[in-house]
Amino acid sequence: MQVQLNGKMTLLSEHCITIADVLAESPWSGRRILVEINGEVVPREAYGRTSLSEGDQIEFVHFVGGG
């Protein structure tokens, strides 16, 4: 399935059907991030049950600490 991930058209593997699946296969794995799909924030506890669809616009935003 093809989605827009952080502004780039991306072809996901056939095993990526939820946000949790994408995070497990990406460089984002293990990082604290905020996820948006089509402009809506997805709560962390919903990653495993939030299905993706062809053409979804997904944004992964990571937090950077500092002072």
Q: Can you give a write-up of this model?
A:
It is a single chain. The protein is mainly beta. It contains one helix and five strands, in the order ββαβββ. The protein has one helix at 19-25; strands at residues 2-5, 8-11, 33-37, 40-42, 57-62. A five-stranded mixed beta sheet has the order 2-1-5-3-4, with no helix packed on it. It starts with a strand and ends in a 5-residue tail after the last strand. The mean pLDDT is 91.
Secondary structure blueprint with pairings:
Blueprint lengths: L1 E4 L2 E4 L7 H7 L7 E5 L2 E3 L14 E6 L5
Parallel strand pairs: 1-5
Antiparallel strand pairs: 1-2, 3-4, 3-5
How do you describe this structure in short?
By secondary structure, the protein is mainly β. The chain contains 1 helix and 5 strands.
Features:
single chain, 67 residues, mainly beta, 1 helix, globular
Model regions low in confidence, pLDDT < 50 over at least 5 residues: none
The main pleated sheet reads as: 5 strands, mixed
Query: Could you spell the SSE succession in H and E letters?
Result: EEHEEE
Strand content: 25-35%
Shape annotation: globular
First-last Cα distance: 40 Å
**Mean pLDDT across residues:** 91
Total strands: the figure is: 5
Strand order of the largest sheet: 2-1-5-3-4
Name the helicity range. 10-25%
